Amino acid sequence: MHEIDFEVLDSQLAELAEQAKQAKSALERQRSLNRLIHLLSQPRVLYRPQVNRHPPDVHRDLYNETCQRVWLYVCRNIGQYNPQRGSVRTWVNYLLDKRFIDVVKERNGRRITYVPDIAELEKVMPEAEISDAQILQEYITQDPTGELRKKHIKGHPAASFQAIALRILAGKTWKEISEEFRIPISSLSAFYQRYLKKVAPILRQRLRH
C-alpha cells in the first residue's frame, strides 16, 4: 500500500487553503478548494469518528453524510482556517468529529433538522412514515411548476436541481453524482444546498398535506 508523506501533504493543503483565501476571483477560489477537497478525500488522510461503534454499512453512510456537510462548511468558511492553530487536516478532523456527532444525533432523534438530509428520509423514518419520502420523491419527479428541472448549474443543463435531488434520494453518493456529471463535489453540493433552501418550505408543505 502506498505510504502517504503527511509532511508533504500538509504543506500542499496549507498552500491550497492560502490560495483559496487570497483568490482574486470566485473561479480561482473554487479551483483551490476543489483541489484541497480532492486531497483530503484520499484514503487514510482523515480521521474516521466512532468507526467501531456502528456496523460498517451504517458507519459508511454516516461518514459520507458528515463529509458532505464538512466540505460545504470548508468551502464557505475557508477564511476561518488559522494555520497558527494547526494543520488543515487537524482543522478538518475536528470538524468531522463534531459533525459526525450531529448526524448521529439527528438520525437517532428521527427528525430532519438539516435541510440537505432530505435524502435520508427513507433511511431515518420508521416504516409507517415511508410514504412521506415517497410523496417527496413523487413531487420532485413530477415537478408541477417546472422550476426544479429548470434550475441547473451554470453550463451544465443536465445537472438540474431535480436531477441531483432524485439521485440523492436514490441513495447515490456525492462522489457518484460528481463522476456522472463531471462536476466537482464542492460545486454540486454548494448549488444543491443553496437552491434547496429556496424550495424547502414547499417540500415541507407537501409533507404536511
CATH level 1 class label of the largest domain: Mainly Alpha
Our estimate of the beta-strand percent is under 5%
Number of strands: 2
Say what the CATH topology of the largest domain is.
Rna Polymerase Sigma Factor, Chain: A
Arrangement of strands in the largest sheet: 1-2
Total of DSSP H or I helical runs spanning 4+ residues: 10
Q: Give the termini separation.
A: 54 Å
Ranges with pLDDT <50 over ≥5 residues?
110-132
> Rg to the nearest angstrom?
18 Å
Descriptive account of the structure:
Helices cover 66% and strands 3% of the residues. The radius of gyration is 18 Å and the shape is globular. The chain has 2 domains: 6-108, Orthogonal Bundle (Rna Polymerase Sigma Factor, Chain: A); 115-208, no CATH class. The model is unreliable at 110-132 (pLDDT under 50). It has helices spanning 6-22, 26-40, 56-77, 88-108, 121-124, 130-142, 147-150, 161-169, 174-181, 185-208, and strands at residues 152-153, 156-160. Strands 1-2 form a two-stranded antiparallel sheet. The chain has 209 residues and is mainly alpha-helical.
Could you give a short description of this structure?
The protein has 209 residues and is mainly α. The chain is built from ten helices and two strands.
